[in-house]
Amino acid sequence: MNPRNIFHHVRLIYLFVICGILVGCNKENSKTDTVLATFAGTIDINNLPNYANQKIPNYITQDNTTTNPITDKGATLGRVLFYDKNLSVNNTVSCATCHKQAFAFSDTNIASPGVNGLTARHSMRLINARFGEEVKFFWDKRAQTLEDQTKMPILAHVELGFSGENGDPSFQDLITKLSKITYYQELFNLAYGSSEITLIKIQNALAQFVRSIQSFDTKYDLGRAQVNNDSVDFPNFTALENLGKTLHLQDPILDNNDIRIGGGAGCQSCHRAPEFDIDPKSLSNGIGLSLSGGSDFSVFRSPTMRELVATNGTVNTPFMHVANLKTLEAMLQHYNNLTMAALNNPNLDPALKPNGKGQQLKLSPTEISALVAFMKTLSGTDVYTNKKWSNPFL
User: Fold this and answer.
1) Domain check: are 116 and 256 in the same one?
2) H or E element: which one contains 252?
3) Is residue 208 part of a domain?
4) Measured in whole angstroms, how far is the alpha carbon of residue 366 from the centre of its chain?
5) Bridge-partner residues for 277, per DSSP?
6) At a CB cut-off of 8 Å and minimum separation 6, what does 24 contact?
7) Residue 197 belongs to a domain with what CATH number?
8) Which residues contact 277 (CB under 8 A, 6 or more apart)?
9) Domain membership of residue 317 as a residue range
10) Are 92 and 112 part of one and the same domain?
């Protein structure tokens, strides 16, 4: 072959190779072009926030994660899903409508708005959902796992509206809807290596994001890190805060009529330090009301006691499944006397009525102030301000 022809062929091959590399690079870059454009300033695909390996104190031992460990890519997808109003049938509400970062991922409304009315119960705080022995979710524990919980509001007629019943679109309609959104094609591919959207993928991503929302930057944690156990005084606590901690940890000494004659308030029997999660065996706390009227004795779960108080010092109210308690003092007064609950609530937890009469703690004003002071030490600032848990659409 003529040397000039050889050179010409080599040159063509070289150009084809270079073009192929450039096309491949462009295809690779295009996988996240819409994400970069849609979430400019809030999500950097090349520098994702740390969701998977956040610092967890060594004294925290409870973890209800099973087969769905947190990944940075999965939690990033979950964050977008959590805040995206496209998950509702009319594009008006999202998970974040009921769980607001400004209020420790709870709601100040008594009941939260959905596409077809209001929720049947007050929205539960989502702080430290991962760090508890209890694996079931919702006030009545109807969700067997957090993954199971994340799909239920989407499938609920009142909440996000993809029930598939009584004229509602189905979950498959939601999948079809999301599949047409380019940033979801890119984010699902990023998280799972495939742009295919499925129920399991949506559940897992949402659960990863929720499990990533953690609070360990509190005054309590600063003190707990300096001692060997919760029972000793914390060096960074005031005398009132240490008294409140002692009252929380110690069981009350009750007489045969369930009247306290010594000991503490017994909060620890249900809300166990240092996670302050709820004991899975706990039954009703004595509030048997329902937002729709009548009774609701099926409520056995509660969120962690962490982040009851917001950054500015106000409480993240209202409390309980019917949002009937507006202050920490009101909560304590509820537990201070449960004689009527023992008579009217068939599912009252036995720890609250060991002799069948219903506890009367008879907490003094100083003791109530001490317990309030201690509960306030369980709040930090990061959960309210950290951008990785914020709305990526803003």
Assistant:
1) no
2) strand 252-254
3) yes
4) 33
5) 272
6) none
7) 1.10.760.10
8) 62, 128, 131, 132, 133, 134, 271, 304
9) 219-378
10) yes
How many domains is the chain built from? 3
What is the DSSP code string of 196-245?
A: ---HHHHHHHHHHHHHH-----SHHHHHHTTSSSTTSPPTTS-HHHHHHH
Angstrom distance (rounded) from CA 231 to CA 24: 61
In-domain check, residue 22: yes
Element (H, E) at 113: strand 113-114
Enumerate residues 6+ apart whose C-beta is below 8 A from 182: 34
**Which residues on adjacent β-strands are paired with residue 319?**
325
pTM of the model: 0.91
Q: For the segment 57-71, what is each residue's pLDDT rounded down to a tens digit? A: 999 999 999 899 999
pLDDT of residue 1: 53
Instruction: Give the integer Cα–Cα distance in Å for 53 and 55.
Output: 6
Whether residue 86 contacts residue 177, with contact meaning beta carbons closer than 8 Å, is answered with yes
Q: Would 337 be classed as within a structural domain?
A: yes
Residues 65 and 130: beta-carbon distance below 8 Å: yes
